């Protein structure tokens, strides 16, 4: 028997990430090739944005996706989020050259307060939310705090792009395939303070740390390359990453929904206190997923260098959260 459709809201649907994301959701890449979906697309009320959205929807129609069971356009989150199973919150102002993601905090904080409240009011009680709009961790924190009637654990922030970036850098360094790398982590904030950590990573039963055996490369090349990749893309493209960001959003929700078969992935999630990260801080952790739930990988050793890096990115998140307290 065919599965009942799941309702997916996407905000910023006429933006650059939206243009790479919507087609893949409708194609079954996110929730499975046997899972019908209904798209509920939100854009700002501005006439130009709504017109652009109608054009994107014409193109989606023209793909005749067999799994697409419905699609609606919205300018109000209270209708866009009605009865949804998943929310992918992309819509926000992106940064330009010379800006840090946290410079977007005040511009984007209002959006996530309003959207958190709308989710609280009208979404399914089990709705799962991924925040992509920057600064992603703190926006996810704001949305979570604005939705007190929904389970806090269902609010997440996207660190999967950082995880995928780190995988590619390690594959290039070791000359091995991306698909063979296991047990990578990106701790903390989606910002240059993040800590991509390959101390536990393995390829075909061999330790990646031992294969690379070069702490200078780790500190002076790997960490800054992954941490500043977003800025490198803005510098090269004149626009922030879009297709790779959409791909990471698909990976994040796909794995949350379909499970990881024991594989570790990185998700920005509200801390439960694990690894001495204070409760509720929206922090990148290693997780495995099963039956629609994520679980933090426990029991990993935290050495002095790692603790220093984990605290550095934690301090930035704590400061960001302090900075938005007055809005909550
Ligand atoms: P974009 O400017 O091309 O598109 C954003 C869209 O959002 C626009 O169409 C705009 O009209 C819409 N929008 C703005 N406010 C909205 C609101 N309140 N409700 C609904 N829609 C709204 O930007 P983009 O390149 O698609 O990037 C979107 C966001 O994603 C930015 O904040 C960017 O920094 C972030 N981003 C995050 C990651 C990550 O890894 N977490 C990666 C890439 C980009
Ligand atoms: C990225 O990492 O590519 C995005 O967060 C966009 C940005 O501002 O860097």
Automatic annotation (TrEMBL):
**Where are the catalytic residues?**
190
Q: Which CDD domains match?
A: MDH_chloroplast-like (cd01338)
- Binding site residues for NAD(+): 12-18, 108, 115, 132-134
Q: A single Gene Ontology molecular function, please?
A: L-malate dehydrogenase (NAD+) activity
Q: Which reaction does it catalyse?
A: (S)-malate + NAD(+) = oxaloacetate + NADH + H(+)
Q: Which Pfam families match?
A: Ldh_1_C, Ldh_1_N
**What top-level branch of life does the organism fall under?**
Bacteria
User: GO biological process annotations for this chain's record?
Assistant: malate metabolic process; tricarboxylic acid cycle
Q: Where is the Lactate/malate dehydrogenase N-terminal domain?
A: 7-155
Q: Which keywords fit this entry according to its UniProt record?
A: NAD, Oxidoreductase, Tricarboxylic acid cycle
Identify the residues that the record assigns to the Lactate/malate dehydrogenase C-terminal domain, covering every copy.
160-326
The entry's substrate-binding residues are 95, 101, 134, 165
Q: Point out the coiled-coil segments of this chain.
A: none
- As recorded in UniProt, its EC number(s) are 1.1.1.37
According to its UniProt entry, what is the function of this protein? Answer: Catalyzes the reversible oxidation of malate to oxaloacetate.
Q: Which family does it belong to?
A: Belongs to the LDH/MDH superfamily. MDH type 2 family.
Name of the protein in its database record:
Malate dehydrogenase
Source organism: Polynucleobacter cosmopolitanus
